[in-house]
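Re: weekly structure request thread

Next one in the queue (303 aa):
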Amino acid sequence: MTKNNSQAPYTKHFQITGHQGPIYALSQDQDYIYSASADKFVARWHKNSGHQDQFAIRCTQAPFSLLVLSDVYQLLIGLSDGSLHVIDTQQKTEIKYLKAHQAAVFALAENWHLQQRYTADAEGNVFVWDVHWNLLLQLPLACGKIRQIVVAADGSSIVLACGDGFFRILETTFFNEIQKVYAHQEGCTAVCLLPNGDLLSAGKDAYVRRWTSEGLKSKAFPAHLGTIYQILHLESGVYVTASRDKTLKIWSAANDQIVCKIDLQMAGHRHSVNALLPIENGFISAGDDKRIICWHTSEQNSL
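Done, posted below.
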């Protein structure tokens, strides 16, 4: 772990360097951070210190997606071959092995309002599962790679970031499509729902676009120099974008003005930044440089 004490709005709290390959996904529970890497391991780290826990899962293929399920001590892992593994995080044992997808699983989400889980793959399929992992519905959307599924705060709909450039909104009773908006040339890669009802989208075109709840574009701006892989809204009233251009940027959610850019000169990432995770007083990022970095607001003391 390393230190950084620069005077930016967010400074490095600690850094984790235990993986031997690019890191593709992050998730968390109350005490731990979980990470998935091209080294075919899913590892667990203490959230307060960054120290590795005695929990490591060796996968047969690269894990592309992770999701800690609320209140049931289960971890869902999506692999590059379409496999899904459900792990008991307390007993450290596999509960379920599911081979429904035929392509890499890039997106996972949970709707605790309706007791549903969602998985999506590189061929544009969305699967709906119940809490016992019975497959309820398969939606062959044929929309290219689905990189993200975001569940509305009330559970009434889901938003999909699709490889054909659209984001799609489906209601979660009958899973009818209620909005389909062309957002990004060459692919929509990330979506984020804001508390005021607006939706942010990002894509391979390196743009961020803001949309009203009716699907009308209200703003568009070039945010990075490469594909944007994730947008994360924080309770402090900002959102973070992570990009293939090796940088993190923090933006005001009120006016989309940039607050801070985190690059290598600020002890940031050396390669593509792939994953973000919110934590108290900040956020966590991870990427192709095999590193996980915890960022705290500057008022917090750095380790």
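The radius of gyration is 18 Å. The chain has no helices and 28 strands.
Next request, please.
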